[in-house]
From TrEMBL:
A GO CC annotation given for this chain: membrane
PANTHER family recorded: E3 UBIQUITIN-PROTEIN LIGASE RNF213, RZ-TYPE DOMAIN-CONTAINING PROTEIN
This protein's record includes keyword Transmembrane: no
Protein name, as recorded: RN213 ligase
Superkingdom of the source species: Eukaryota
Keyword terms, alphabetized: Ligase
Signal peptide annotation: none
GO biological process: negative regulation of non-canonical Wnt signaling pathway; sprouting angiogenesis; ubiquitin-dependent protein catabolic process
UniProt-recorded Gene Ontology molecular function terms: ATP hydrolysis activity; ligase activity; ubiquitin-protein transferase activity
The organism's taxonomic lineage, starting at the top: Eukaryota, Metazoa, Chordata, Craniata, Vertebrata
UniProt cross-references to InterPro entries, sorted A to Z: RNF213
Length: 148
């Protein structure tokens, strides 16, 4: 958010992990992040890395250790659920742990995201049916099983 005009991450910079994420998917992601040609220009993010299976997590650690020597300038962010900090990836990378506290007020963060997710030409997009021509939205409910 320090640079309002900088674009949001692209698909190649984010890996959304699930229990079904394969070692090959993680390997491709880490190779993009840790390759010498990336020179730390992008911030690569693994979301919910605590969801990876044990085998994939072990392979991820092994691969990270072998690849990180090829590049000294990389930006890798691993986000995990704090309730699952006992799982493999959070444990292995705990020496790099940084508690995440939002540095900006919620309203400012919402404005920033609204600027980046607003469709400029709504006639050409399905976003024209959403509030404020946004191409992304969150639907939530405090009650389970209400179809959202």
């Amino acid at each position: 958010m320090s640079s309002p005009l900088q674009p949001l991450p692209t698909f190649d910079e984010v890996l959304l992990c699930t229990p079904q994420t394969t070692a090959e998917q993680v390997e491709l992601f880490l190779r993009r992040c840790l390759s010498p040609r990336s020179r730390g220009e992008k911030i690569y993010t693994m979301l919910y890395a605590d969801e990876l299976s044990y085998d994939v997590s072990a392979r991820t650690e092994e691969l990270f250790q072998s690849l990180r020597h090829y590049s000294s300038t990389y930006h890798l962010l691993i986000l995990c659920n704090c309730n699952r900090e006992h799982t493999y990836i959070p444990s292995v990378f705990s020496q790099y742990k940084v508690p995440m506290v939002p540095q900006r007020p919620l309203a400012e963060i919402q404005r920033y995201l609204q600027d980046h997710y607003k469709v400029t030409q709504p006639g050409d997009s399905a976003a024209s049916v959403f509030k404020d021509n946004m191409c992304v939205g969150i639907v939530s409910s405090k009650r389970a099983g209400v179809g959202k």
